Amino acid sequence: MKVTIYIPAALREFTDGRNEVSVEPSGATVAEALSALWNAYPGVRDRVLNEQDQVRQHINIFVGNENIRYTGGLTTRVPKNSQISIVPAVSGGQ
Known about the structure:
Helix content is about 15%, strand content about 20%. With about 90 residues, the protein is an alpha+beta fold.
């Protein structure tokens, strides 16, 4: 099963400049898809997960259009040929 993971600009230095990476996870959860990403590009992991292996507060992860914070977190199921997006939170303004 292939999964495409979209990489934000701030993390592309850790993926050789790639804005998307295709992985073949060992299972069908977000955690397993991300684990495949960490195996290929280990520098991304610490920018996405904290020391307790939870998604950092300022990072959002989507499977398709669904934020995993509302669908089961890292145990969210990833359907075949899905797209996962890593999206840093944006703040500021006037």
